[in-house]
Amino acid sequence: MSQYQNVLVAIDPQQDDQPALRRAVYLNQRLGGKITCFLPIYDFSYEMTTLLSPDKRITIRKEVISQRTEWIRKQSQAYLVAGVHIDIKVIWHDRPYEAIIQEVLNNQHDLVIKMAHQQDWLQAVVFTPTDWHLLRKCPCPVWMVKDQAWQESSKAVVAVNLASEDHDPLNTKLVKETLELAERVNHTEVHLVGAAYPATPINIAIELPDFGPSVYNDAIRGQHLVAMKALRQSFNIDEKFTHVEKGLPKEVIPDLAEHLDAGVVVVGTIGRTGLSAAFLGNTAEQVIDHLRCDLLAIKPDDFTSPVKLDDDEV
Description:
The structure is a single chain. By secondary structure, this protein is α/β, with parallel strands linked by helices. The chain is built from 12 helices and 12 strands. A hairpin with a 4-residue loop joins strand 5 (117-119) and strand 6. The two termini are 35 Å apart.
């Protein structure tokens, strides 16, 4: 299996400690492959000043890129000495998420790992605009890392959508990739979780007064249980590792992940953009915003990134 053999680590330029690189090395030691440390940088003041000629601005860009490259190399030194295959690439680009995705497209990276910042008082992960763009638009899986060490006993929780058969291909992909990864990373325990929406739609309550909320909720839960059984049996997963809970996904999935002391939650993201993302979002994004652990976001097989390649790299 060649899963996650060409990993791109998005370097955080604001701090010397790089949890994303640590997580990448942890995976590399179990999966093999190579790591590319990638940093897009940009200083608007260099571009706008009239005191510098175009040639001088280019020279300054190259000097800044060289300094940052050396800074990353020093941070990676212990890993390099230990024999980890790490490449370093720094480019001049004013939109970090576009630069990262273009690098993925240019060099066929199969995983992006990036740090997600954490609010200490909530112990919750906070996502930046760049993070959200990557989660919605990056064609390969995106692993958002919480700033803490990976526990050997940590579990993986796969959030599956059991509401309709339309989600079956993505559910299958999520479970398959997580099981393959878990087998090679400390035989990590994998749990599946689906949430059943609890409220009876108002139009049903009005039009069918004999069809009470409990009947509706029981029917929905029954459908979810049947769908979960079919999914777990296709992968020979024991029933004790599956969970169908009453409640909203954004509440059920983070709560279960915390209860299980999960190290990572795996979700499928459909990559909505524009008004549908701004006003509606999707289940994955609602869940993501409430997590307190690592996140691995995976796209459907037919996903195409809206980001296009350009030739602006220096």
